[in-house]
Amino acid sequence: MGFSYFQQASRRRGKVPGPVPQAEGLPSKAARKDRRSRGVALIIAIVSIALLTVVASEFAYNTRVDLQLAANQRDEVRAYYMARSGMSLGRLLLRFQKQVDQTPIPNPMAMLSQLGMGGPQPGAGGTQAFQPQSLNIQLWKLARVDCHMLKGLVKSDGAEGAEGAPVETDPVEVDPAFRMDDGDESAGAATQMAATMQRRSFGGFEGCFLATISDEEEKLNVMRLNTGGAEAQATAARMVDMFADKRFEFLWQQDDANRVRSTPQDTVIAMKDWADEDATQSALNPKDPTNPFQGGFADEGSAYSRYEPRYEVKNGRFDSLDELYRLHGVNDRFMAAFRDRLTVYPDINSKPNINTDDPIMLGLAIMSAADPNRPDPRLTDPVFLNELISRIRAARMFSFFGMSVADFLGVVEQAGIAVNPLIKGNVAQNRYLGDKSKTFTIKSVGEAGSVQKTLTAVIRLDDGLGKLVYYREE
């Protein structure tokens, strides 16, 4: 049959050779190889998906970051120009303030005298009562300069009317001379797009701003310490009174960061010596109306030789109020207490304005109006002083033309306080008190999205929108 010897022998023994049987439950070699291949492919797929997920996540994150940066940059530009808008409107309001200050007040008695119906009424003692020559209304305190004022005055795209309904704007009309319908599809599409655009009028903007105006001449001008004579004496006396107030005693009981302790008089002298032209330390005599600062013998820079690092006295005009930090006796606590009551920006001949709302500055104005030769002990009583300040505020509220220096002196005299004859004898041209200001600070804050920009400018009124004295961006 063609069988070999071994096969025939096996048949005779009853055994037929065939495939070698495998152990039950064990996979074959091919199956194991196929299973290993499937495991490697699964690992490669998982790793690939993980890498793609990381790359996609990183790409999405970078896209979000770039988008947010672009949005912040856009909002920063918007906020900056919002602040610029508030600054410009504030300067425009101050321009109107100057016009109000120059508006003359008609004298009704003189008008009646011209019509032959009466004459001017004499004042006390047979003299002509003082009549204010111009208005003293503080327009910048009455108006609020912000974005809502503009949105309420002008119609803008997306703005709301008085009843909350949206204000519709007219579509843009395209001049027929500029129509391009000569077959150019792109030109026709541009013309159609321009025809459907909405006109955005003035005031149609996103974001908001708020501009606050403060009077620099309602504060004590540090530069007046270098005028010499009565102006320097009055300014130095008021500064010493303010610094030595019982409420601020704690400021002078500890050493500063340079381990130096000063007094109110030392700080006033340091302010004067920083801006004067000599190198000799001054000596203060607040009772001398002709020369309150006399030349001493010490070096005015001796106090700064103990600082680390050492520096010299400037002997020049202050550039900003923050320059006070370099003075002997001035630190963070001092500036926190007196920053809003000191200034270096007005003209050296400017007078403190009596139309201030600060009770401390009103108290100092009352002391300036009092006769130094006849001091009234009641001015040291805080209860009496607060009552007198309340009278001045009440008189200001009922003053139709605004409070003038004459009105201020009248309230002080009614309280029984002797008034300085140098002020009363020449109310219009006195050198101690004033009722109008020419230097103002405008702080404009613009906001767009989550970004804010703050612009601070000191403006001195002139024939235009004001002279820029100081400017800072934050």
UniProtKB/TrEMBL annotation:
Signal peptide: none annotated. The keyword Membrane applies. It comes from Corallococcus sicarius. The chain crosses the membrane at residues 39-61. Residues 1-32, 281-301 are annotated as: Disordered. The keyword Transmembrane applies. This is General secretion pathway protein GspK. Coiled coil: none annotated.
